[in-house]
Amino acid sequence: MEMLFEEEQQQIQAISDRLQKDSNAIAVLVINKDGQEIARSGQTSDLDITSLSSLFAGNVAATGEIAKFLREEEFGGQFHEGTKQNVHISVVARRAILVVIFDGRSSLGLVRLRVRKATEEMTKIFDALVKKIAAQQAAGIGGGSQLPGEITDEDIDKLFGE
Amino acid sequence: MSFINYSAREINCKIVYYGPGLCGKTTNLKYIYEKTNPDAKGKMITLATETERTLFFDFLPLSLGEIRGFKTRFHLYTVPGQVFYDASRKLILKGVDGVVFVADSQVARFEANIESLENLRSNLQEQGYNLDKLPYVVQYNKRDMAEVSSVEELRRELNPNNVPDFEAVASTGVGVFETLKAVAKQVLTELKRGTGG
């Protein structure tokens, strides 16, 4: 099970916000490798984040697998060039995907530069998070204290509107 | 892998619909999509060939409301059923929390079901999962077709461990939500165990 706590989410959010501003990007998304959102910054209100996250995750998974078939360890990043917008995709700490959407107000060089810095910072947070979860699980806390105790049939039926 | 986001107070789970080509995996998702309240669903994504065969995956995000303050979100995926898309199937299984095996009840597809189930087992194993320990349900689809195997026969081959199983006609919705509910329930129960709740 993967967990994200408020403290680390806020730290990642802050780095994401800074990256979006420093790179003059339209938007920045941070998602986990299974395609679930961790943070978003910039102009995201008109984006379907759930759909995009799933597609970026599928894309990164497929590219990673292509790398294996070509006996490459991994491809560091991907760049998609559009007529109005461009997308830079990279993997952070082998567990998250960093997406930067930008247009002519920025450049690939600037985005790469800022992504490198943000990646270093985020890697530290993700590494610390992994240790935190491991420590909690070892201590038997499991992060479960805030989760529903007994999930009943009724709870689940209620979810399905019955 | 289920993802608990304490910051957004969300529980995210991934369910994969598996089965042989043309068994009705996409049809299951389409029916769920059509019958779900607009507030509770996102866009359904289909990465398909020009002949509407699944190329990579279908994706349907569902928000099913809250369990004690946590938004419960299920991401439903299908795999491409055609044999030669095995590399893609493996990718979709990454991080899976629950599996629905959709069997095609037609006599002519009996062997294809068995082959697909073996493929599911070995692909899961490659990633360190054991099907017998995962939330898992079986659906016998296409019960409305002319020449179908009996449920007993299908059960004997495809469900020896007696996991929850359902007869279905996905095109008209028979058994579709029953299947989804059964797997969702198992996933949530497993989640509770995993967090010591």
What does this structure look like?
- In chain A, strands 3-2-6-5-4 form a five-stranded antiparallel β-sheet, with helices on both faces.
- With 162 residues, chain A is α+β, with helices and mostly antiparallel strands.
- Chain A is 47% helix and 21% strand.
- In chain A, a hairpin with a 4-residue loop joins strand 4 (77-81) and strand 5.
- In chain A, helix 1 packs antiparallel against helix 3 (108-138).
- Chain A has a single domain, classed as Beta-Lactamase, CATH 3.30.450.
- Chain B is an alpha/beta fold and 197 residues long.
- Chain B has a single domain, classed as Rossmann fold.
- Helix content of chain B is 32%, strand content 28%.
- Chain B contains five helices and eight strands, in the order E-E-H-E-E-E-H-E-H-E-H-E-H.
- Chain B has helices at residues 25-35, 86-93, 110-126, 151-158, 176-194; strands at 3-5, 10-18, 45-48, 54-67, 70-78, 98-104, 136-141, 165-167.
- In chain B, strands 1, 2, 3, 4, 5, 6, 7 and 8 form an eight-stranded mixed β-sheet that branches.
- In chain B, a hairpin with a 2-residue loop joins strand 4 (54-67) and strand 5 (70-78).
- Chain B is globular.
- The chains are: A alpha+beta (162), B alpha/beta (197).
- Chain A binds chain B through residues 1-6, 9-10, 32-38, 48, 50-51, 54-55, 58, 61-62, 65, 140-151, 153, 155-161, and chain B through 1-8, 11-12, 14, 37, 42-43, 45, 47, 56-57, 59, 61, 64-65, 67-68, 70, 72, 75, 87-88, 90-91, 94-95, 177, 181, 184-185, 188-189, 191-192, 194-197.
Concise structural overview:
Chain A is an alpha+beta fold. Chain A is built from 4 helices and 6 strands, in the order βαββαβββαα. Chain A has one domain: Beta-Lactamase (2-Layer Sandwich).
Which key phrases capture this entry?
heterodimer, A: alpha+beta, Beta-Lactamase, 6 strands, 21% strand, globular, B: 197 residues, Rossmann fold, eight-stranded mixed sheet, 32% helix
